[in-house]
Specification:
disordered N terminus; single chain; alpha+beta; Cyclophilin; 9-stranded antiparallel β-sheet
């Protein structure tokens, strides 16, 4: 049976000499073809990049509008500061980020947290100096110098802040009576002393004093923290329970709401509750680090920080677990509570 041999390379002699152009083509066609392929890839990559940028831009606006859906006639982004703050990490470097920062500052201003709002706007000015919000000018007054939207809002906030500091009686709760009960929370971040509005919120104060005297809060955590908003604690589940159960615990009873003339300024003690419920939790509470007035009349204020606001601010500025919006990476623990004479 005949065997098949491996094919050998065959050199074919040219019939005639090739022209110079032909020789050029022979020498360079592979390079030209390679360049054409590279150019095609570059064009396709550019188109894909533009499409991806468009999709990413749209996604970033979806995130912002979910956090700040707007409830005004112009339907501009508007929402609560904690919701916008929680969305910001997903907007870093996107077209929506500067607008989200401006929207956050506006929300912080509505809550009268002027320092936080000014800080947010200064960050926007530093991070995005060429953005429309920092380059379009319009007069601040009829005959005044021009201002950008960011500078204009900073100037207005500074003016409001100065005025409120000069008129404190209009922007804070009544001074605690000298005989008001006081409680010391000893935490692993420092001590916080709380004064209680016994006459204005008697049921909530009685309940809180009982828990403090009984050691109910010992070794529980400040399990929820939202910057420039509040720190929340008082859940017995946070002693040893799984993090997913934090915020769901408490005694087997709740407290009826109490109407009073107290508002959610910075540094108040207020009762937590489940969303949609009218009764307060039997044990959980929060201390405000901003001025969330959207909670006025919804949650019952029953106390205020009289010492240790710096400790509260430290707890409120702690790092948050990456996979959550408000769970502290290293929760601060309440070691003990003492009812002061």
């Amino acid at each position: 049976m005949p065997t098949h041999k491996v094919a050998t390379d065959i050199s074919i002699a040219p019939v005639e000499e090739k022209s110079g152009f032909a020789q050029f083509v022979d020498s360079w066609w592979k390079v030209a073809a390679g360049l054409a392929v590279i150019a095609t890839i570059a064009i396709l990559a550019s188109q894909h990049s533009r499409q991806a940028d468009t999709e990413a831009s749209g996604a970033s606006w979806d995130i912002l509008l979910a956090a700040a859906p707007g409830n005004n006639m112009a339907q501009l982004p508007q929402g609560d500061a904690p919701d916008i703050q929680a969305a910001l990490p997903d907007l870093v470097g996107t077209p929506a980020e500067p607008w989200a920062m401006y929207t956050l500052a506006s929300a912080q201003a509505r809550e009268e947290n002027f320092s936080a709002a000014i800080s947010t706007l200064e960050g926007l000015r530093d991070q995005y100096p060429d953005h429309t919000l920092n380059t379009v000018f319009y007069p601040y007054t009829a005959d005044g110098p021009p201002h950008t939207p960011v500078d204009n809002l900073i100037k207005a906030l500074q003016s409001d802040q100065t005025w409120q500091e000069a008129m404190p009686q209009l922007f804070q709760n009544p001074v605690l009576p000298a005989e008001s009960p006081r409680v010391r929370l000893t935490t692993d971040a420092g001590d916080v002393v709380l004064g209680l509005y016994q006459r204005r919120s008697p049921k909530h104060v009685e309940n809180f004093l009982k828990h403090c005297a009984d050691g109910f809060y010992d070794n529980t955590l400040f399990h929820r923290v939202v910057a420039d908003f509040m720190i929340q604690g008082g859940d017995p589940n946070s002693r040893e329970g799984e993090p997913d159960t934090w915020g769901l615990g408490g005694p087997d009873y709740k407290i009826d709401a109490e109407e009073n003339d107290l508002f959610h300024f910075k540094g108040v003690l207020s009762a937590a509750k489940q969303s949609g419920e009218s009764q307060s939790s039997g044990s959980q509470f929060f201390i405000t680090t901003g001025a969330p007035h959207h909670l006025d009349g919804v949650h019952v204020v029953f106390g205020a920080v009289v010492e240790g606001m710096d400790v509260v601010d430290t707890i409120g500025s702690g790092a948050i677990e990456e996979s959550t919006a408000d769970r502290p990476a290293e929760p601060v623990r309440i070691l003990s509570t003492t009812v002061l004479e």
